[in-house]
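Q: Sequence in, structure out?
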Amino acid sequence: MNTKTIADLEEEIKQLKKLLRDRDNVFLNIIGKNRDGILIFDLKGRIVYANPAALELFDKDLGALLGESIGIFIDGDKKTAITIAHKIKGLIHVELNIADITWNDQPARLASLRDITHYTKMQSVLEHLSHFDYLTNLPNRISFEETLKKAMHRADRIHKKVALLFLDMDGFKKVNDTYGHHMGDQLLVQVAKLLTETVRAEDLVSRLGGDEFAIILERIGRDNYCEQIARNIIRKISQPIYLSDKEIRINFSIGIALYPTHAVTAYELIKNADAAMYQAKISGSGRYHVCSE
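A: Exactly. Output:
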């Protein structure tokens, strides 16, 4: 029969406590060296532990964080992301992962905090590039088509017209062939600025690609307003543009179509404005043509 003395039991308890301390030390060592921020909360949402990475994220020492509640747990819900206002780094976007644990023999919650600021910024850049032209920073074709459909819906509600101007640059190929594509890129940037300055702030100027641009004019009260805009563009663009001490002369052929006068769908409006632009080009450089009803 195996009998244990009190001394044997005390030794087993001592060894068990050592194992638990070693386990806790390993746990603390792992989360202490973790590159992600680690916070441990009691069930009231107060911080009871913060690793060095978390202290760096919040730009605070341990004493300033312990006992604090940073709003991760609100009405029992767990947030999946927070934004931290860092004194030096500015706004830091943080992804959260939360797990239930036991801490000092009490139920607790562990939150890992990963700085995703760079990823968030890259997402924002990619989102911008998907809707804006990389060279001129004008809305691209995708953004143009989305805006046109929305403009047509708004026009139906307020009983106003939408004018679509298609613009094709006359003389752009000659600039590229004579001075190179770098000069051509500079010219596109200057032209984009000129077009934006010619229309109202609420109107959309977009670059569809190459030397093709489009302008959406909303809330048209008079049909001849869009013709006035076309004349202003042609007048301004016909003036010489100076780039790197070179005098550049170009112009635009402009096609105009109105919704709902000339089309009832975005596809038809684009098609008719494009056809009108080619009619203008046939008539000679620096002309505009309004779609025939």
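The domain at 34-120 is CATH 3.30.450.20 (Beta-Lactamase).
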